[in-house]
């Protein structure tokens, strides 16, 4: 999907994503038993509901449903593997301070060494839920896969290209997920 195709969601996409998330959350609280299949069914019902409102095309509603499913599955895996909660997954507070400190330290560091370490880190990193600019994502911290610049979303938003290097590829930053093999 090209950048213009992703950006066509701009209008009501963020509002619809949040409405879909709220609908799924409400429904999951009402159910006695929840599973991944139940989550997928509820997301599909939310997509159908939004499509029937005729505010979005079928493709737009399906795409927002895919974004929502990705974010919720990522959260579920994080909670399952770490036992941590939403605060740790969002990791908004401490990451903002870490980002400022890292920028200050990197501004005086040997750039060749920094680039070498970043390349090593990229090569060791497995696919932990990558995101592309233009996609809709819920709040949280995102690291540019090219330059490691941090982007903080405080609400459901479109991911913009990296303001530091222009790259379109990100990963969600969480405190302890995915777990690295020791």
What can you tell me about this protein's structure?
With 182 residues, this protein is of the alpha+beta class. It is built from 7 helices and 6 strands, in the order αααααααββββββ. The strands form 2 sheets. The chain has a 4-stranded antiparallel sheet, covered by helices on one side. Strands 2-5 form a two-stranded antiparallel sheet. The chain is globular, with a radius of gyration of 18 Å. The N and C termini lie far apart (37 Å). Mean pLDDT is 78; it is low at 1-7.
Q: N-to-C terminal Cα separation, in Å?
A: 37 Å
Look at the helices and sheets and give the structural class.
Answer: alpha+beta
Helix content: 55-70%
Report the count of strand segments. Answer: 6
Radius of gyration: 18 Å
**Percentage of residues in DSSP E strands:** 5-15%
Looking across the biggest beta sheet, what order are the strands in? 1-6-3-4
- DSSP summary: helix tally: 7
Spell the H/E element sequence. HHHHHHHEEEEEE
Task: Enumerate the spans where pLDDT stays under 50 for 5 or more consecutive residues.
Answer: 1-7
Tell me, rounded to a whole number, the average pLDDT: 78
- Overall outline: globular
In this structure, how is the largest beta sheet organized? 4 strands, antiparallel
């Amino acid at each position: 999907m090209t950048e213009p195709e992703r950006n066509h969601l701009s209008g009501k996409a963020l509002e619809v994503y949040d409405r879909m998330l709220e609908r799924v959350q409400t429904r999951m609280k009402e159910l006695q038993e929840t599973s991944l299949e139940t989550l997928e069914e509820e997301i599909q019902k939310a997509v159908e509901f939004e499509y029937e409102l005729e505010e979005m095309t079928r493709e737009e509603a399906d795409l927002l449903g895919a974004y929502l499913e990705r974010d919720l599955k990522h959260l579920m895996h994080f909670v399952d593997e770490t036992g941590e909660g939403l605060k740790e997954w969002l990791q908004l507070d401490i990451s903002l301070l870490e980002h400022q400190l890292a920028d200050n330290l990197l501004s005086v560091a040997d750039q060749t060494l920094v680039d070498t370490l970043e390349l090593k880190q990229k090569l060791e990193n497995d696919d932990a839920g990558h995101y592309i600019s233009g996609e809709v994502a819920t709040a949280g911290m995102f690291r540019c896969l090219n330059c490691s610049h941090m982007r903080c979303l405080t609400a459901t938003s479109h991911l913009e290209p990296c303001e530091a290097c222009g790259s379109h590829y990100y990963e969600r930053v969480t405190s302890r997920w995915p777990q690295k093999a020791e």
